[in-house]
Amino acid sequence: MSGTTAKAPLIHRLRERAGFSGGAAALRVRFIGVIVFQLLLVLVFTALAPRFFTWDNAQSILFTAAILAIAAAGQTLVVLTGNLDLSVGSIMGLSAYVVFNIASGSPDLQPFVILIAVVVGVVLGATNGFLVAVLKIPSIVATLGTLSIYRGIVSFYANATEVTSGELPRWMRTLAETSWLGLSSYVWIALVTIVVVGTMLRMLPWGRQIYAYGSNPKAAHFFGLNSTRIVIGAYVGAGVIAALVGLLLGARVGNINSLLASGIEMSVLAAVVIGGVSIWGGAGSVYGAAIGAIVLATINNGLVILQVQEFYRLLLQGLAIVAAVAVDAVVQRRIQSATKRRRTMGADA
Amino acid sequence: MTRLRRYASELLLVVLIVLAAIASSAMSPYFLDPANLLNAAQFFVIFALMAFGLFPIVVQGEIDISLASTLAIGSVLFATLAVSGVPLVAAVALVLLGTALLGVVNGVLVGYGGLPSLAVTLGTLGAYRGLAYLLAGDAGVVGIPEEYLLFGATKVGPVPVSLLLVLAVAAMFTVLMGATSFGRYSYAIGSSPSAARMAAVPVNRVRVLAYALGGAMAGLAGIVWVSQYQSARGDNADGAILFVLTAVVLGGISIKGGSGRALGVLLATILLGTIQTGMKLANVPGTSQTLVVGALLIGAVGLPRVVSMLRQRFGAPLPSRAQGGGQA
């Protein structure tokens, strides 16, 4: 309260007016930073292995990134509220196994697999949301618990059997192998999902409330927003997206066992964090998360082409997360100091 | 009476352990066989050591999900040193030092860097796992000389040495958290970091110390791992953090920091061990066992909240206890 009341230096005020300073600019720099990092990766890999920079390879990177990017879009909803969803892999696995198993048992239900998956996603997501928002269990504990509960349910249900690719609905299998305009259908589905979720976050009250709650839960409460409903809504959205992407993954893999997508939560979180969605909540976008997914897919692909072993991938991925979070901390500080400065400037006027 | 209430969560754990033991012995007559009990208990030594390592970190309101990866590095390092003939004492010291350093990296990033511990340790979870693979190579390390396997089959009377190790560590953490400045500082930081800072608690240093201790405990667990499995690979203990975190939370350590005792961690590990052993004897498959562990985790944190919500809505508030006097 004491030091900050002094007048901000002139240069800061000018930059503030011009929009070069403050939180928005810091976030913009953060977003551009990820793109620059991605370009650097492409440059380095191309220099090391010319085979990297081909259309075929770009297709394969985007195909890998597609599933991760969709899952990351769901995770973004939850992370924006300042929480986490570690159960995303278990939701994907449960949805894929249970839905396809039901569909293979009764062919009449095959056209409705998407609907069934949505119901599964709503139930599992709402359970997460209830634990976090109503019972006030810290999200990491709650979703770590549901991670093993949901996975346990699949393995109990599956009883060590598989759903084979022949039992999947025909059109899901066809979809997994189709490409439109030279890109796999999954890439287009990912693109549509990301744009839809991004637009909902930007345009709908539901989306604005998620941002408002995430950047300052207390202020959102005083403003009259229903925090319980916002958090449950975010988890339900994440659950539905995870359930649907589980179907896509299952259709691609073919033979589905009870372990499908286990451990994917780490990659999804990594994509979200690298893509600049603040772990404190309230800042970042699904577009950033999608680029984060592409960065991860590029690292994977490039290291495979260079015939580097698995552990360098883990190492690089881990370092990328730590670096991204470190940058986020700087951005966070910029936003806070900018807000504080604006507040004191307002008080002066 | 007040003393009883102070240890309410520990008493509850004891009751649950007895219930689980009764259920398990009803399912299998072999459960209560002393030899079986001691053997089964050995299996959970590694988890117990990691849980004690995580304990001060959680008390400070932080988390470390990279501990299982640190264990992997510790085990590979110890196995490599053993195979290349480094004296036992030096090997143990080097492993503890090395894994403590890995903890220090986490601690510096969290403490001095001010980064969220979950994201940092998510990063180092991957990075350390990669490092473990790098050190171990594809084949892992095998052929460890007999004299390095001191926490494996060695026994004092009927009791395996590794169980004595756990008891010694439990005693150490009881003293550390209950009777030293590090312990008091940890509870203060966990209750309110800014208040602790104003009270001249060296917050950053204490954080780094907690992470270093956690790393060293994971290293110790890695040494026990090598003794028990007589090999070390890069993927050792992958995914163990769920069990460890469950033990800590179930032991009454608030995930928000500031409360919990070492005794609770020990009892919670025993409870989880009893349940898992019972399920194993009853032939429950592994992944279904995780269902129970997950349900326990959520139940342990969620139930008190449900009870207080129900009490608020329906019951008349108890005169003295209702207003925040309940927890220690």
Describe this structure in words.
The complex is a heterodimer of chains A (349) and B (328). Chain A has 349 residues and is mostly helical. Chain A has one domain. Chain A has a two-stranded antiparallel sheet with strand order 1-2. Chain A is globular, with a radius of gyration of 22 Å. Chain B is 70% helix and 1% strand. Chain B is built from 14 helices and two strands. Chain B has a two-stranded antiparallel sheet with strand order 1-2. In chain B, a hairpin with a 2-residue loop joins strand 1 and strand 2. The relative contact order of chain B is 0.18. The C terminus of chain B is likely disordered. The interface between A and B is large, with 48 and 47 residues.
What share of residues of chain A is helical? Answer: over 70%
Quickly count the helices of chain A: 14
Q: Compute the number of structural domains of chain B.
A: 1
**Quick one: which chains have the greatest interface?**
A-B, 48 and 47 residues
Strand order in space, largest sheet of chain A: 1-2
Q: Please outline the major beta sheet of chain B.
A: 2 strands, antiparallel
Overall geometric form of chain B: globular
End-to-end Cα distance of chain B? 14 Å
What is the string of helix and strand elements of chain B?
A: HHHHHHHEEHHHHHHH
Q: What is the averaged pLDDT score of chain B?
A: 87
Order of helices and strands of chain A: HHHHHHHEEHHHHHHH
Question: Strand percentage of chain B, roughly?
Answer: under 5%
CATH third-level topology of chain B: ABC transporter involved in vitamin B12 uptake, BtuC
- Termini separation of chain A: 17 Å
From the spread of the alpha carbons, the general shape of chain A counts as: globular
Strands across the major sheet of chain B, in which order? 1-2
Overall mean pLDDT of chain A: 85
Number of strands of chain A: 2
